[in-house]
């Protein structure tokens, strides 16, 4: 049905509840049978070249996608509401629905319509949800797309995060408190969650989840997975790993996730095998407030990458590296040894400018091996993507040769893990054309010489076409009809066309096939035999190319673990290269990171502010925070004097040091901090019933409840949201609690100059003042 016809037939309102299944056409009965199994999804039902939606699904899709709502005869007096999209361009439409929180079930024809008896069989081949997307067009290159599962049992919880597009899985256990669960969830920013019913029914927990992002939330009981079933699923998928099988809550969360993926993806998920069991206490925990105030990934006001820490550090050349750099910033390390290994890798590249430049050039030609490996495993990779994949593998031998001489244990590990995959590259190079057709159904995929049968069929095609072309010349000579021509259409096949003026010269053995206004069309036994040979070869070529391609794809998929290990190595190298280039461009130094209780920074600079266009020059400052000496800095000074910038700079330099990056300073020593807390600026949540003052007090309460003596606190203008004396009392009480109870390293900016007296009354507290000097105009 054409688009024009669709738009000219508006549907009358007809609800499914009023329908008697027995009155429907066979096709609509099939539709309802499938739909009954997927009530929570928008069902895209394949009809010819379109995915059609009916009834409630049609009305929803018509509204959300802004496409015409039409109707279709369904065996009833009223037409069924319907809308549809072209199957070959479905991704853009599905992406819109997914972004709005819908699930989409793709229902395909599972038998050839040409050979089917009665209604063509159809079944759902996949359910696409926000957390299970694998299509490149629906994903952001440099950002992971996580599905999260949280299973609660007693006072403990298991958390599992999986990126189906890359095959990575992260699992941990945690104490069951909203604060801890939300904090862990914020690390990964999932687009979809499956959570225990108790959490699903908790309004406060759901409200906190909604503050993170607009993730789709599923109830765990809808995909219930008993203890034995979870153990079996995990064991079958990941092997009998004692580590995961002994973690009850984590195993349960992983089991639920695997069950959900099997239900939605309907394949073996062989590429989902990169299991990391992590200890949340191995990483610095950054809550949403800290990430926002420190502008790690986007700016506070414009929400753009430019102006963030990621903008300064991201010099990655691959999508894999970009995603891994985000993870490093999101999860700074707490182990100085692990930090030192990263630093050594950055130092090796920093000290070898030629190797650094050559490595960047090689990385620039490598496609997203992680996500390509996922598409290979699930069978959705296109021929052109396989060629791009092979082209990327071709860069690996030279890349390894460039970095091998560098003296660094972490780079040696990267070389070890970087399999050149020569056998895989050779297979693709010998089998797939350099510029194949974009779609599998288009053909023109397999190289000449790869399949003798295919080569023979192509020869028949080529020879048959030449013979048919020669028929026209021969028949003109035989009949004397100079205007005679041989043509082809999809209805009648090959034919001989003779004008009405030359009908008297038509031979008796010509068989009339079609009459036109100015000509007659004929066939001959010879022409039909040639047609059968050519068209038979063409059809067999199409099916054989598909068979060969699927076999090649499966052979490549059998090496999926090698491919994933190589992709991981390339990503790690890319991040080290990015950090080395940022250090070189911005004059950073390698900090000493240890277990001491001090943060010592000399001539420190704010890495983002100094890089912003139009900045006339950044004035560096020193910092010396120590649990033994100056533990708390009370900072005063005029507005716009840079107090907030200075405090954030210290926090960002500390964070940079703990991800293994060099830092903007002349010299730095950083004793690892377990958390960075920030309370900066005035903001409210009026929709949530929170005034500016209540938001401030809530954030302060969380800080003093969660911080330890190894934390770094950045507190700006505590108490400003209320009257002067109340605010001053609150600010003083917070300061006294930090000094006497927490012992955390703290920078405390205030306009309450009366608080400076605390430097004389409390131990390890010192006053600092922002000095402003005017130069000319």
Question: Overview of this structure, please?
Answer:
The structure is a single chain. This protein is of the alpha/beta class and 777 residues long. It has a six-stranded mixed β-sheet with strand order 3-4-2-1-5-6, sandwiched between helices. A six-stranded mixed β-sheet has the order 11-10-7-8-9-12, with helices on both faces. Helix 15 (353-363) crosses helix 23 (560-586), helix 19 (409-417) runs antiparallel to helix 23 (560-586) and helix 21 (452-479) packs antiparallel against helix 22 (525-557).
Distance between the termini: 72 Å
Our estimate of the beta-strand percent is 15-25%
Poorly predicted regions are: 1-15
| Major beta sheet summary | 6 strands, mixed
Major beta sheet, strand line-up: 3-4-2-1-5-6
Strand elements, count: 25
Give the structural class.
Answer: alpha/beta
Q: Please report the number of helical segments.
A: 27
Radius of gyration based on Cα positions? 33 Å
Overall geometric form: elongated
Give the mean pLDDT: 89
Percent of residues in helices comes to 40-55%
Sequence-ordered SSE layout with sheet pairings:
Elements (H helix, E strand, L loop, with lengths): L2 H5 L18 H10 L6 E6 L2 E5 H11 L4 E3 L7 E7 L3 H10 L4 E6 L12 E7 L18 E7 L2 E8 L4 E8 L2 H11 L3 E4 L1 H4 L2 H10 L3 E4 L7 H12 L3 H4 L2 H18 L8 E4 L10 H6 L15 H5 L5 H12 L5 H15 L2 H11 L5 H10 L4 H11 L2 H8 L5 H9 L4 H10 L20 H28 L5 E5 L3 E7 L11 E5 L3 E5 L1 H33 L2 H27 L5 E3 L3 E7 L16 E6 L5 E5 L6 H16 L8 E5 L4 E4 L12 H15 L5 E5 L7 H19 L2 E5 L8 H4 L3 E5 L8
Parallel strand pairs: 1-5, 7-10, 9-12, 10-11, 17-21, 20-24, 20-25, 22-23, 23-24
Antiparallel strand pairs: 1-2, 2-4, 3-4, 5-6, 7-8, 8-9, 13-14, 14-16, 15-16, 18-19, 18-21
Helix pairs in contact: 5-7, 8-10, 13-23, 14-23, 15-18, 15-23, 16-23, 17-20, 19-23, 20-22, 21-22
């Amino acid at each position: 049905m054409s688009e024009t016809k669709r738009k000219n037939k508006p549907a009358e309102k007809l609800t499914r509840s009023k329908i008697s299944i027995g009155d429907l056409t066979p096709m609509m009965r099939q539709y309802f049978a499938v739909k009954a199994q997927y009530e929570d999804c928008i069902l895209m039902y394949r009809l010819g070249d379109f995915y059609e939606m009916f009834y409630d699904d049609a009305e929803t899709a018509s509204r959300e996608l802004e496409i015409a709502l039409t109707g279709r005869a369904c065996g009833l007096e009223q037409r069924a509401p319907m809308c549809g999209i072209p199957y070959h361009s479905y991704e853009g439409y599905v992406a819109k629905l997914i972004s709005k929180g819908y699930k989409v079930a793709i229902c395909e024809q599972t038998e050839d319509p040409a050979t089917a008896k009665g209604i063509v069989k159809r079944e759902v081949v996949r359910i696409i949800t926000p957390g299970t997307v694998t299509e490149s067009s629906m994903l952001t290159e440099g950002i992971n797309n996580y599905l999260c599962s949280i299973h609660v049992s007693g006072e403990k919880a298991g958390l599992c995060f999986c990126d189906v597009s890359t095959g990575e899985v992260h699992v941990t256990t945690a104490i069951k408190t909203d604060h801890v669960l939300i904090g862990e969830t914020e690390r990964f920013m999932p687009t979809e969650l499956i959570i225990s019913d108790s959490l699903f029914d908790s309004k406060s927990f759901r409200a906190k989840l909604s503050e993170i992002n607009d993730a789709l939330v599923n109830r765990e009981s809808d995909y219930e997975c008993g203890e034995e079933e979870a153990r079996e699923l995990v064991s079958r998928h990941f092997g009998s790993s004692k580590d995961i099988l002994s973690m009850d809550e984590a195993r349960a969360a992983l089991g639920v996730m695997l069950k959900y993926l099997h239900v939605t993806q309907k394949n073996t998920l062989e590429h989902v095998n990169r299991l990391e069991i992590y200890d949340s206490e191995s990483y610095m925990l950054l809550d949403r407030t800290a990430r926002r105030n420190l502008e790690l990934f986007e700016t506070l006001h414009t929400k753009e990458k430019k102006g963030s820490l990621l903008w300064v550090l991201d010099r990655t050349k691959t999508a894999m590296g970009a995603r891994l750099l985000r993870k490093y910033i999101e999860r700074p390390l707490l182990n100085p040894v692990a930090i030192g290994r990263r630093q050594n890798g950055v130092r090796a590249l920093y000290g070898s400018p030629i190797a650094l430049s050559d490595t960047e050039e090689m990385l620039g030609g490598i496609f997203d091996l992680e996500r390509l490996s996922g598409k290979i495993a699930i069978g959705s990779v296109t021929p052109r993507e396989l060629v791009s994949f092979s082209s990327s593998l071709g860069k690996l031998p030279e890349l390894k040769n460039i970095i091998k001489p560098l003296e660094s244990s972490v780079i040696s590990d990267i070389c070890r893990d970087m399999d050149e995959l020569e056998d895989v590259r050779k297979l693709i190079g010998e089998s797939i054309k350099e510029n194949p057709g974009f779609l599998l159904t288009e053909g023109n995929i397999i190289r000449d010489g790869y399949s003798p049968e295919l080569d023979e069929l192509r020869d028949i095609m080529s020879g048959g076409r030449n013979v048919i072309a020669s028929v026209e010349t021969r028949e003109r000579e035989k009949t004397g009809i100079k205007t005679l021509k041989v043509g082809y259409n999809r209805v009648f096949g090959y034919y001989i066309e003779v004008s009405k003026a030359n009908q008297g010269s038509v031979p008796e053995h010509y068989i009339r096939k079609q009459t036109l206004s100015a000509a007659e069309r004929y066939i001959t036994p010879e022409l039909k035999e040639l047609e059968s040979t050519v068209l038979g070869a063409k059809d067999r070529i199409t099916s054989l190319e598909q068979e060969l391609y699927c076999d090649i794809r499966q052979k490549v998929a059998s090496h999926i673990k090698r491919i994933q290990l190589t992709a991981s190595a390339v990503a790690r190298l890319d991040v080290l290269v990015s950090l080395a280039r940022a250090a070189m461009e911005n004059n950073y130094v390698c900090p000493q990171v240890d277990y001491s209780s001090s943060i010592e920074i000399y001539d420190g600079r704010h890495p983002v502010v100094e890089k912003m266009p139009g900045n006339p020059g950044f004035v560096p400052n020193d910092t010396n925070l120590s649990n033994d000496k100056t533990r708390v800095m009370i900072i005063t000074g005029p507005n716009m004097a840079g107090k907030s910038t200075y405090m954030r700079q210290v926090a960002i330099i500390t964070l940079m040091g703990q991800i293994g990056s060099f830092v903007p300073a002349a010299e730095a020593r950083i004793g690892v901090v377990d958390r960075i807390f920030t309370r900066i600026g005035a903001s409210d949540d009026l929709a949530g019933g929170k005034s500016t003052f209540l938001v401030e007090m809530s954030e302060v309460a969380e800080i003093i409840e969660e911080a330890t003596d190894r934390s770094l606190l950045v507190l700006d203008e505590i108490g400003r949201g209320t009257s002067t004396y109340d605010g001053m009392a609150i600010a003083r009480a917070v300061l006294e609690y930090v000094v006497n109870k927490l012992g955390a390293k703290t920078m405390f900016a205030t306009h309450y100059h009366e608080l400076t007296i605390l430097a004389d009354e409390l131990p390890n507290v010192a006053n600092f003042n922002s000095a402003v000097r005017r130069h000319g105009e």
